[in-house]
Amino acid sequence: MARPLPRSTPIYQLKVTLKDSKPPIWRRVLVPADVSMRRLHDILQVVVGWQDRHLYIFEVGRTYIGEPDPEEDWREVRPAKTTKLSQVAPAAGAKFVYEYDFGDSWRHDILVEKVVSAQPGADYPVCVAGRRASPPEDCGGAWAYAELLEVIANPAHEEYDSTMTWLGGEFRAQAFDVAETNTVMRIAGFVRSVAESTPKPPRSPEAQRRRHLRLL
Questions:
Q1: 61 and 39 in one domain?
Q2: With CB atoms 3.0 to 4.6 Å apart as the test, which of 2, 104, 109, 143 could cross-link to 192 if both were Cys?
Q3: Is the dihedral of CA 98, 32, 37, 113 positive or negative?
Q4: Inter-residue contact 118 to 35 (CB < 8 Å)
């Protein structure tokens, strides 16, 4: 069970947009400022609709954050597990890039639209809006995905049948379900609840008497 979220925790409203997607594929999600970048990766996988089959990295200016591999990385990579979102994006207006699958190179622009207060009784992270389905895994990247959409829009295309078979018989490019996305995050154990405001207990008769005497 996820630990409760303190009411003092700032909440980041993030706008996530898949680069080179036309029309845009985007999500808006509210995330606690104290999440690690590793957990943000997990959240983005669910929110965008990926399946976590490939490597990833965050780019913040010239800083890289991900899963360090001294034998493979040609650049210095800070560990995502110990780097918090608030360290990467200290205020509203901050921007950074999330890249998933270095082969297909799915790059996402992430913008901190605003920072808000945690609401008592609310759950975070929570997806609040979005448009369009994520591309299928391993389809070849943004330009290949654009070609795939052209093929499946034309049943007379010579590659229509083979493409639909590869897609499993169906693909709804315009579909995105906010409620289903939040359910998956809850099942995955990502969601933390903010404690409700606790009303002060009523004063005892003796405490009320002492207060009355102080006011005399």
A1: yes
A2: 2
A3: positive
A4: no
Q: pTM for the whole thing?
A: 0.87
Sequential DSSP letters for the chain: -PPPBPTT-EEEEEEEEETT-SSPPEEEEEEETT-BHHHHHHHHIIIII----S-EEEEETTEEEE---TTT-SS-EEEGGG-BHHHH--STT-EEEEEE-TTTTEEEEEEEEEEEEPPTT-EESEEEEEESPPPPTTS-SHHHHHHHHHHHT-TTSTTHHHHHHHTTT---TT---HHHHHHHHHHTT--EEBPPPPPPPPPPHHHHHHHHHHH-
Give the domain range for residue 80: 10-132+176-215
Cβ neighbours of residue 13 closer than 8 Å, sequence gap 6 or more = 28, 29, 30, 112, 113, 114, 115, 116
| pLDDT means over runs of 10, the chain (216 residues) | 83 97 96 97 98 96 90 82 96 97 96 96 96 96 95 96 95 95 96 74 61 55
How many domains does the chain contain in total? 2
Q: Which two tokens mark 44?
A: 């983005």
Look at residue 44 and tell me if it is in a domain. yes
84 and 161 fall within a common domain: no
Contact (Cβ atoms closer than 8 angstroms) between residue 46 and residue 188: yes
Q: Which two structure tokens, joined as six digits, stand for 15?
A: 């706008």
Token pair recorded at residue 81: 């597990």
46: exposed, middle or buried (C-beta count within 10 Å: 0-12, 13-18, 19+)? buried
Q: Is residue 4 in a domain?
A: no
